[in-house]
# Entry
Amino acid sequence: MPALAPTTYQARITWLGHVPDRKASLRAVPVEAVDVTLDGFGGESHSGATRQSCVRVKTQYQQGTVIRNVRQLSIVSAEELAATAAAMELDAIDPALIGASMVIEGIPDFSHVPPSSRLMSVSGVGLAIDMQNRPCSLPAREIEQQAPGFGGRYKSAAKGRRGVTAWVEHGGHLTVGDELTLHVPDQPVWAHLDAARQG
# Structure
């Protein structure tokens, strides 16, 4: 058995986008296809081999420390996005408003796939999943601009449904409609996880 095993789960890309300037806005620009490099998606403000550490890793590094960029991409599932919208009493949420790089459909409970899983395209593009993405206030601001009175509902509605962050392991070309196969680590959950957590 390989360390990373293919599964029977197939996902289809339903949306692609990139955030041109995250300092100006988290809002993404939709595209039909994207060139993928080891730095991420072309034209994406989150791309690059390294990044400055943020509050997400404040217990590991002083903020602003240069670290490996494993947050090149934000991948969400169409099913979880629809569930978030329903919880907010909205008809739908435009993935551009939450700064998504990619929306896929076909993998249940996508936000909880194991870290280090891979999404592999038929053409050989490999996307390595870092971990579950946590909801924050930035998408809420964009949603509030689009649907006044609803932005404040986002964080609680998206909890456990915000998708994952990922980085490019092998580049190539991706197009809306491409299929991806989920590969997962051949490793059980660490039995000592709950006992090892601090706080």
